[in-house]
Structure formats: C-alpha cells, structure tokens
Amino acid sequence: MLANFPLLVVPLIVYNLFVFMGGSAMAPAQMWAEPVFTVTMVSGLPWTLTMGDLLLTASLALLFIEVIKATRTGTSSIVDHMLSTAVFVACLVEFLLVDQAATSTFFLLMVMALFDVMAGFSVTIRGARRDFGVGPEGHY
Known about the structure:
- By secondary structure, the chain is mainly alpha-helical.
- The protein has helices at residues 9-21, 28-32, 51-69, 75-97, 104-131, and strands at residues 35-40, 46-50.
- The protein has one domain (2-23, 43-131).
C-alpha cells in the first residue's frame, strides 16, 4: 500500500504546514521568497536559493520518482493513478479557493501534480498497448 502513496502530497502538506501553522506574519508570497542561502558565482553575480525554490526542487525529485512508478503495471497502478488524480484535484481546489495558495510556488506545485496525472495515464496506456500487441497501424 505504501508503494501507492502519492509522493506529491508531501510538498502539498509542507506548503500548507508552513503557510497555515508557521506562525509567520508574512504573506505567503513573501515567505516563499525568503532566501535560504546566497552563493557568489564565478561571474561575480550572486545566486540566491529561496524557500520556494527549495520546495520546488524537492517536488521535482518526487515527480521524477512518480513518473518511474507510473511504469509499473497491474491493479496497483490504477490505485496510484486515482490517488495522483485526487492530489491534483485537491491542489486545483485549494489554488482556486484559498487565499494563501494564490502564489507562484503553489501554482507550480499544482502543475507538477497535473504532469504526474498526465504522465501516469500516458505511460500506462502506452504500456498497455504494448502488452496487448497493438501495433502503430492498429493491426491485431
């Protein structure tokens, strides 16, 4: 059952924990723009990693794992797709209805959840076509 756990729910939970229980008086957009650290590049210009950048980077790593998980076949993949779809719907509803979710960071989290759903169904359909021996011309 743990293999079916939608990993992209983790950044969603982290986002909500920081925004709703962080106790910060800052607006969500300001909070995710807070610098974590700054590095001076060889060019001499500073590069700053923000809290939002850090969350999005971790989310991209989880999205990669979710795409790898989408290559599995069997009944568990159906449950995985349903849970991923539920995460996307939750993100969409929160983005549209909750003031604290109206940030670019949350929007990109929602887009990653959408990509997870699309990639999961696409990979599964492609794999199913190969399993049933359906050729590109539709010959059986």
